[in-house]
Design a protein that fits this description.
globular; 3 domains; alpha/beta; Alpha-Beta Plaits; Rossmann fold
Length: 424
């Protein structure tokens, strides 16, 4: 009952506009006595409801004659429908728990009977109800209609695959630190620990099942980092070499920064506009036993406040974006984003690019990165930048799965966009 109630409260907060990761962090902080098993159960429910929210709402709309005015009661029903359809818990236990939780959530004596009737109706007619919900695109794909329409227009052959990939549980992928071990040797170490894995590409090992970080052999000794395979393409695409001065302009939480230091012996300046996030970057460096050349708290779009006048050989601009390529890891994104947000992000990205370009040496390279699939933040941004900067040339990105800079999300990796600019 407590698990259901905390899940209901968390979903309500997220749907009011709050970041899912931060909501769960606050929940753990305020409930320190929750066991790891309880935390895992709550997280599974909250992520699951947000992952399949369109479908669950489609089912619920058929089970109630009129919209429920009590948001907590509505969210409890969504939680219970998710558990009945997707979890392995006994149906009777889920229904009984929902009825008991209802009595905790509301003083209306009739609400418990209503919840019981709705859930038992679902159990009697689940196949038909799910079919009707899936007859609508928002139910079948569990995305907002504007998101579906935009992907259909921009990816007419791939939009369904992208939407379905967004609803899969994301893989857990490791980046092997070749300063300390090899991919083959670390995979053998995983095998000895009975952890199955396969190589995606380069240093990326994808686990067949996620495991707690503490179960990863030699993790604290810096043998591996947890990083999506798509994100691991940034460092090789930037083409860093020993002795170069490099700026990671939007560095937190530091996965790409540490990867750059593993690739070459460089003078790396790590920049972010949030000191707390920079502290996380420092923790990542410390675990790996390496140090950046310089760490700066500042705004990438306001270079006059932090730049010392020394130019860079390479700049990594992993800019703020809609995060539409990482919805599998962050299902709240698709419900919190609005179509108007894309113009806001595009303007921010343009300002950052325009501010960073003068900091790059002649014959230097700037790698523009987003974790987005929307054209406004990717291909259109590149076109606009090239029109404004005659000293910029777009270099080809050569990779089997990257098409015109776009890496489409699938069961092996998230979605990213990469554009490499050369300064003449």
């Amino acid at each position: 009952m407590k698990i259901q109630q905390l899940a209901v409260d968390s979903i309500e907060i997220v749907l009011s506009g709050k970041n899912l990761t931060l909501v769960l962090q606050a929940l753990w902080h305020h409930n320190p006595l929750l066991s790891l098993q309880q935390r895992g159960a709550i997280q599974d429910i909250v992520y699951g409801v947000l992952r399949y929210l369109g479908q669950l709402e489609g089912v619920l709309s058929q089970l109630v004659k009129r919209p429920l005015s009590d948001k907590r009661l509505r969210n409890l029903l969504l939680v219970s429908l998710y558990q009945l359809h997707y979890s392995k818990s006994p149906d009777y236990a889920i229904v009984d728990c929902a009825v008991a939780t209802t009595r905790k959530l509301t003083k209306n004596k009739g609400s418990a009977g209503l919840v019981n009737a709705i859930l038992r109706n679902f159990l009697r007619n689940d196949t038909a109800l799910l079919d009707l919900a899936n007859a609508h695109e928002t139910g079948r794909f569990s995305h907002p209609q504007w998101w579906i329409d935009k992907l259909r227009y921009q990816y007419p052959q791939q939009y369904e695959a992208i939407l379905l990939a967004n609803n899969h549980h994301p893989p857990m992928t490791l980046r092997v630190n070749r300063h300390k071990t090899s991919v083959i040797d670390y995979q053998a170490l995983l095998n000895r620990c009975e952890i199955e894995s396969c190589q995606v590409w380069d240093n990326a090992l994808m686990l067949s099942k996620p495991v707690p970080t503490q179960k990863l052999p030699m993790f604290e000794q810096g043998y591996v980092s947890i990083q999506d395979a798509g994100a691991q393409l940034a460092a090789p695409f930037l083409d860093v070499r020993d002795g170069m001065t490099v700026l990671d302009a939007c560095a937190a939480p530091g996965g790409k920064s540490t990867h750059l230091m593993e690739v070459a012996n460089i003078q790396l300046t790590v920049l972010d506009n949030d000191q707390q996030r920079l502290d996380r970057v420092s923790e990542n460096f410390k675990r790996l036993g390496i140090e950046p050349f310089q760490q700066v708290c500042g705004d990438a779009a306001l270079t006059s406040s932090w730049w010392d006048g020394k130019y860079f050989d390479r700049i990594l601009a992993d800019v703020p974006c809609s995060a539409s390529g990482v919805v599998g890891r962050h299902p709240d994104i698709k419900w919190l984003r609005r179509i108007t947000d894309l113009a806001t992000f595009a303007n921010m990205q343009q300002n950052i690019l325009d501010a960073l370009w003068p900091l790059l040496k002649s014959e230097g390279k700037l790698l523009y990165v987003t974790c987005s699939v929307f054209f406004e933040e990717n291909g259109q941004q590149v076109t606009n930048f090239l029109d404004k900067h005659p000293d910029a040339r777009l270099l080809p990105i050569v990779h089997n799965e990257v098409n015109n800079g776009q890496l489409i999300p699938n069961s092996s990796h998230d979605g990213f966009y990469y554009a490499s600019f050369y300064k003449i």
